[in-house]
């Protein structure tokens, strides 16, 4: 990455949350096992049609390339003249050469500003999106939890618990045995008999978490689900995450809340514009990332609100330490060069 990209960051959304519920909490350190996941030079490219999607990808600073339509033969042009695709075709390079190894027992947070490629990376690891280049080696079954989890809004919570359980490899008996526990964990009460489309986003997210973690999966993927829960749900989720890790599972957690990442993860991957710019111990990466976000907010507001942190649920920013401004931004540029 060069300073040009740092300049281009000026229009990006440097959203970062910091919550009081998480204060003073840390993920338990447990002895790590063998590697369970190897991501080797992974690239994911989306083909988008029309200018709107291309522009929104460009907004998030991702590498976008226009694709020239192939030249058609004369006979094709004569026969298919009326069927030619109209509109620009572009390629969005959402994940660019990401490599890392995860071990049994690790709890790995993924941070990055909007559009940096966090969800795409998770979906590629679970096999929902094929790699354009590179490879993903997994020992075990990843259970993806997130907006794209295969639950059906038109069906009841109860039916979704059944479908989700089967999709995770549970037997009907195991699903039956776990049913009440899942409903209790998600705290959805009588809503379990109503279609999921009637749920609030928080209820749906809690149910997805409860289903995905019910069978103690080998690899648990959590995409923003904890953002919608209250303190009690978070405490239950943290206990469940620790339990998955104690049973030699691995947890990946995507969140815009840096305090949640600090409370639940031992290691952090920082994505920026599709690249992995930093991978290390939670304290080291979280501190560098916070500095980067603050520095960019500061640059944007001319220093006025740079040292502010946003607390979810309040409109009032609170003062935190001042960032290092340009130095922190250059730091990222250097790491990802
Ligand atoms: N299905 C898709 N088709 C085309 N482009 C996509 C698709 N999914 C994601 N993208 C683009 O890929 C880039 C990375 O998106 P992704 O959702 O992985 O980022 P993210 O870091 O998870 O963002 P956020 O924090 O906003 O959820 C973005 O530019 C996005 O517009």
TrEMBL record:
Keywords: ATP-binding, Nucleotide-binding, Transport. Residues 62-298 form the ABC transporter domain. GO terms for molecular function: ABC-type transporter activity; ATP binding; ATP hydrolysis activity. The keyword Secreted does not apply. InterPro entries: AAA+_ATPase, ABC_transporter-like_ATP-bd, ABC_transporter-like_CS, ABC_transpr_TagH-like, Bact_Polysacc_Export_ATP-bd, P-loop_NTPase. One of its GO terms (cellular component) is membrane. SUPFAM superfamilies: P-loop containing nucleoside triphosphate hydrolases (SSF52540). Residues 328-337 have a biased composition (Basic and acidic residues). Residues 299-337 are annotated as: Disordered. Belongs to the ABC transporter superfamily. PANTHER family: TEICHOIC ACIDS EXPORT ATP-BINDING PROTEIN TAGH. This is Teichoic acid transport system ATP-binding protein. It comes from Isoptericola jiangsuensis.
């Amino acid at each position: 990455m060069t300073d040009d990209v740092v300049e281009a960051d000026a229009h990006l959304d440097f959203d970062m949350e910091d919550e009081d519920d998480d204060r003073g909490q840390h993920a338990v350190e447990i002895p790590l096992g063998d590697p369970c996941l190897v991501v080797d030079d992974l690239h994911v490219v989306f083909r988008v049609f029309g200018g709107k999607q291309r522009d929104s990808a460009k907004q998030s600073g991702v590498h976008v390339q226009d694709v020239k339509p192939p030249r058609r033969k004369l006979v094709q042009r004569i026969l298919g003249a009326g069927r030619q695709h109209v509109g620009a075709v572009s390629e969005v390079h959402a994940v660019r050469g990401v490599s890392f190894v995860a071990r049994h027992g690790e709890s790995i947070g993924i941070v990055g500003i909007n559009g940096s490629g966090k969800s795409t990376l998770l979906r590629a690891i679970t096999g929902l999106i094929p790699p354009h280049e590179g490879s993903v080696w997994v020992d075990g079954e990843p259970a993806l939890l997130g907006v794209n989890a295969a639950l059906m809004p038109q069906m009841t919570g109860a039916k979704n618990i059944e479908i989700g359980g089967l999709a995770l490899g549970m037997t009907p008996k195991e699903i039956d045995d776990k049913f009440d526990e899942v409903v209790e964990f998600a705290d959805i009460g009588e809503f379990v008999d109503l279609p999921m489309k009637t749920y609030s986003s928080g209820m749906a997210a809690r149910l997805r978490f409860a289903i995905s973690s019910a069978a103690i999966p080998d690899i648990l993927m959590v995409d923003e689900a904890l953002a919608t829960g209250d303190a009690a749900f978070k405490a239950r989720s943290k206990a469940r995450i620790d339990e998955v890790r104690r049973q030699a599972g691995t947890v990946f957690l995507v969140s815009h809340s840096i305090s949640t990442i600090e409370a639940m993860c031992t290691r952090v991957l920082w994505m920026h514009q599709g690249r992995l710019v930093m991978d290390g111990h939670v304290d080291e990466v979280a501190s560098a990332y916070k500095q980067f976000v603050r520095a960019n907010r500061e640059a944007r507001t001319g220093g006025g609100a740079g040292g502010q942190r946003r607390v979810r649920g309040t409109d009032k920013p609170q003062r935190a330490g001042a960032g290092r401004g340009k130095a922190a931004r250059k730091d990222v540029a250097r790491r990802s060069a």
